[in-house]
Amino acid sequence: MDTETRDHLLTAVRRFVNERLRPAEAQVADADAVPQDIVDGMKDMGLFGLSVPEDYGGLGLSMEDEALVCMEIGRTSLAFRSVFGTNVGIGSQGLVMFGTPEQKAKYLPRIATGEITTSFALTEPEAGSDAGAVRTRAILQGDVYVLNGTKRYITNADIAHLFTVMARSAPHIEGAGGVSAFLVPSDLPGISIGRPERKMGQQGAHICDIVFDNVRVPVENRLGAENAGFKIAMQVLDRGRIHIAAVYTGTAARLIADSVAYAAERKQFGKPIGDFQLVQAMIADSKTEYLAARALVLETARLRDSGASVVMEAAASKYYASEMVGRVADRAVQIFGGAGYIADYGIERFYRDVRIARIYEGTSQIQQLIIARETMKGK
Ligand SMILES: Cc1cc2nc3c(=O)[nH]c(=O)nc-3n(C[C@H](O)[C@H](O)[C@H](O)COP(=O)(O)OP(=O)(O)OC[C@H]3O[C@@H](n4cnc5c(N)ncnc54)[C@H](O)[C@@H]3O)c2cc1C
Predict the structure, then answer these.
(1) Which of 90, 116, 117, 344 is the most exposed place for a label (fewest CB within 10 A)?
(2) Using a 6 Å CB cutoff, which residues line ligand 1?
(3) How far, in Å, is the centroid of ligand 1 from the Cα of 165?
(4) Given phi > 0 = left and psi -120 to 50 = alpha, else beta, which region is 266?
(5) Distances in Å between the alpha carbon of 186 and those of 66, 145, 195?
(6) How far is CA 204 from the centre of its chain?
(7) Active site residues
(8) Cβ atoms of 362 and 321 closer than 8 Å
(9) Eight-state DSSP code of residue 210
(10) What would the DSSP string read from start to end of 129-192?
């Protein structure tokens, strides 16, 4: 995408965020649902297809351009991003990177338009950070794999039409080596979806269990080679981490802007609280950390676009941006004082919403392990 078209897209997304999404933030949180007219607006803008190649009807953005769009989208309630985020990130990218031409032709055009929603199903009750320990089984019987097991906390499971499922195809191989990835339509017999979990934040975005009870998945739905599923999942997550880091960097920008506006308006001791240097120090710390995250995320995205391996840089981006936005949200509550604790001001909602950033798509501890491992390998 040339710079001019990219700038038009960013302007359009910013306008959509300001005019359609921000006014609906409280309503979405209260109703725990994103209104259909907003979802339709996202479809019209092509948001579901940001990362789907143009040949399959998407916008085919570079990682850098996707990161810039994510930074705009991050400036509003994070539940909005979840509506299309799985199609752009972890739900579609296994297919984009490892799908056969037939698999891509079958699903990608409808993923790009938002006609179908995708989910990425890796986590299980007993396999979280230790993702290679998945117990869901996929046993080959003739020309089908029979899936049995439970996936946990799967974003958009209740609305998804297609899951990328990691399941153990080689029960005799323990750990990551015995896992394959599958494209599983959600309407196959034997699939049931749990009730959405009640969560700390991001109301409007749902996570549920998926239970597989003798689900017969055709062999042609396997993604990549047999027993290569863990590597596929890790490559999808490497990319997803840049996406997530960009989104939460955008949220930090929003929180800083809100803090500055409040500090200019709220008066104590006869002056705006923004005149007090201890308040300025909080704004300065937040801004500095935001700028550092933005630079790291964009540099990592450009590096990935150049074809380089970014395992370490993607982990560092996700680690830093998600920890950073936690600190920025905490300072925003502090700058708002009592109002920061009151629901009507919306700041406490962001404080709760950003907490998950340090947990999903690899906890901060898992990112630290990756960064250290890669660094000690000489990277
Ligand atoms: C809102 C939400 C959305 C999600 N969406 C999805 C989704 O779409 N698809 C999906 O597959 N999963 C999803 N998840 C699951 C998420 O990715 C996991 O919760 C996460 O990976 C952590 O796993 P866990 O919850 O089992 O925690 P655990 O792995 O049990 O970790 C508990 C604690 O132990 C620490 N720990 C674990 N191992 C180590 C170690 N070796 N060294 C140091 N510390 C360690 C962790 O860092 C953490 O602090 C979602 C979760 C939530 C809450």
Answers:
(1) 344
(2) 119-123, 128-129, 153-155, 199, 207, 356, 359-361, 363, 365-366, 369
(3) 17
(4) beta
(5) 27, 15, 15
(6) 14
(7) 361
(8) no
(9) E
(10) S-GGG---EEEEETTEEEEEEEEEEEETTTT-SEEEEEEES-TTS-GGGGEEEEEEETTSTTEE
What's the gap in Å between 364 CA and the centre of ligand 1?
10
Whether residue 229 contacts residue 137, with contact meaning beta carbons closer than 8 Å, is answered with no
- Render each residue's pLDDT in the chain as its tens digit; 379 residues: 889 999 999 999 999 999 999 999 999 999 999 999 999 999 999 999 999 999 999 999 999 999 999 999 999 999 999 999 999 999 999 999 999 999 999 999 999 999 999 999 999 999 999 999 999 999 999 999 999 999 999 999 999 999 999 999 999 998 999 999 999 999 999 999 999 999 999 999 999 999 999 999 999 999 999 999 999 999 999 999 999 999 999 999 999 999 999 999 999 999 999 999 999 999 999 999 999 999 999 999 999 999 999 999 999 999 999 999 999 999 999 999 999 999 999 999 999 999 999 999 999 999 999 999 999 999 7
Query: Residue 76 carries which DSSP code?
Result: S
Largest Cα–Cα distance of the chain, in whole Å? 79
**Looking at ligand 1, which residue's alpha carbon is closest to its atom 9?**
154
- Residue with the smallest CA separation from ligand 1 atom 35 is 365
Q: Which atom of ligand 1 is nearest to the CA of 91?
A: 8
Q: Cα separation of 177 and 139, whole Å?
A: 15
Cα 108 to its chain centre, rounded Å, is 18
Residue nearest to atom 25 of ligand 1 (CA): 128
- The whole model's pTM is what? 0.97
Per the structure block, which two tokens stand in for 264? Answer: 């200019």
